[in-house]
Write a structure and sequence with these properties.
It is a single chain. Helices cover 90% and strands 0% of the residues. Helix 1 packs antiparallel against helix 2 and helix 3 packs antiparallel against helix 4. The N and C termini lie far apart (144 Å). The model has no long low-confidence stretch (mean pLDDT 74). This is Repeat motif-containing gene protein.
Length: 208
């Protein structure tokens, strides 16, 4: 009967020691020593206080570690938010610069299109003016040829007339004078034609 009571007491003490967080082997030895009257209550109180003190220190250290971890997490969150904001700002700045470059490129392309259209218009006008000039030159060339032919015909008629005249009535000197006058008339006619052509070239080619 006494052994059964001792076992019950030892079991209770063992369970209490386990509740305090003590290892099973140590709790078993202490419960056995207590039941054998080798351990007094004061020793148990000392062990309990010492264990509680260590347990409290462990809890304190855990709390400190948790606080430090929370501080580091908060600091990391702050850094992450700062990096995110900086990245967002840089992305927005890059988008703005890309829009500016895009608008400038469109402006330059539109300006180039305008200049090309103006150049095409000028080229078309130049082609038209060249066509008109060619037509006018053809007409002028035909008119000049006609005048030269008329002048040659008149000179031929004069030569024929002079050849028919009696040599006794008109001297050789007078014939030369007539020929010189005819050449002067021809030279003046050619000069007038060159002047007309020069004025035409200034007007249509040089744009003066």
């Amino acid at each position: 009967m006494e052994n059964m009571i001792t076992n019950i007491a030892q079991d209770r003490i063992y369970k209490e020691l386990l509740k305090l967080g003590m290892e099973q082997s140590i709790a078993l030895d202490l419960s056995r020593i207590y039941c054998e009257n080798k351990l007094i209550f004061e020793d148990l109180d000392k062990l309990k206080k010492q264990f509680n003190l260590r347990f409290d220190n462990l809890i304190y250290k855990i709390d400190c570690l948790e606080d430090k971890l929370n501080d580091k997490i908060d600091s990391m969150n702050t850094v992450i938010v700062s990096v995110k904001n900086e990245f967002t700002f840089k992305v927005n700045s890059l988008d703005t610069k890309m829009d500016i470059v895009k608008n400038e490129l469109h402006t330059k392309i539109n300006s180039l299109d305008t200049k090309m259209n103006s150049l095409d218009y000028r080229i078309d006008n130049l082609v038209s003016e060249i066509s008109i000039l060619n037509a006018d030159l053809s007409l002028t060339r035909d008119e000049l040829n006609m005048k030269i032919n008329n002048l040659d015909a008149k000179i031929d008629n004069v030569d024929k007339y002079l050849s028919k005249m009696d040599s006794s009535l008109i001297s050789f000197e007078e014939k030369n004078k007539i020929r010189n006058r005819l050449f002067i008339v021809a030279f003046v006619g050619i000069g007038l034609f060159c002047q007309i052509v020069g004025e035409f070239l200034k007007k249509y080619v040089l744009g003066m």
